[in-house]
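Supplementary Methods. Inverse-folding protocol.

Structures were first reduced to a discrete structure-token string of length 79. This string, shown here, constituted the complete conditioning input.
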């Protein structure tokens, strides 16, 4: 269960950073560099974020699916 929450929290931190116009980093998201890269790739594969012209998280944008995912995390944390 801890691993699932770790990944969910990592995704939420990355999405939050991008939605706020910031560039997410592993340190800012409280993730190891390896986990940060793996979670970002997972998010690309799931369609939560989309690559832009340079193709890395610094130049990513949140998809509509990513916004919905983030809103669901926020709603469930308030319950």
């Amino acid at each position: 269960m801890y691993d699932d929450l770790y990944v969910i929290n990592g995704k939420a931190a990355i999405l939050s950073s991008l939605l706020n116009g910031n560039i997410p980093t592993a340190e800012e998201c409280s993730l190891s560099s390896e986990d940060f890269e793996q979670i970002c790739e997972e998010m690309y594969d799931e369609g939560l974020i989309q690559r832009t012209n340079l193709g890395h998280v610094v130049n990513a944008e949140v998809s509509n699916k990513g916004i919905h995912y983030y809103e669901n995390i926020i709603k469930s944390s308030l319950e």
